[in-house]
Amino acid sequence: MTASKLSEEEIRLRLVDVAGWELHEGKLHRELQFSDFVEAFGFMSRVALLAESAGHHPEWSNVYNTVRIDLATHDVGGISERDFDLAAKINAL
């Protein structure tokens, strides 16, 4: 899929479709908390499979039970539909 950078207005309109995500430093951002490290790591493993199949990979970190995810499309220098698609798939987990 060819991606194009979304405008700030397009991003604001699309944010309502991905609960829990916000715009932070030019990226879609979400933080999730789990009961423990194993649950957080299991979630990350499932996201990794989604990301690999989409050919679109998050910037993320994990500290114990907290997973922080940032999505941006580096090829377009901002946020694209690819980011919203992956955010929605992550939410579905």
Provide keyphrases for this structure.
single chain; 3 helices; 4 strands; 93 residues
Number of DSSP-assigned strands:
4
Structural class: alpha+beta
Residues in helix, %: 40-55%
Oligomer: single chain
- Ends distance: 23 Å
Would you tell me the overall average pLDDT?
96
* C-alpha geometry: globular
* Arrangement of strands in the largest sheet: 1-2-4-3
pLDDT < 50 stretches: none
| CA-atom Rg in angstroms | 13 Å
Give the number of helices: 3
Order of helices and strands: HEEHEEH
Biggest sheet descriptor: 4 strands, antiparallel
Strand content: 15-25%
Give a nutshell description of this structure.
This protein has 93 residues and is of the alpha+beta class. Helices cover 41% and strands 23% of the residues.
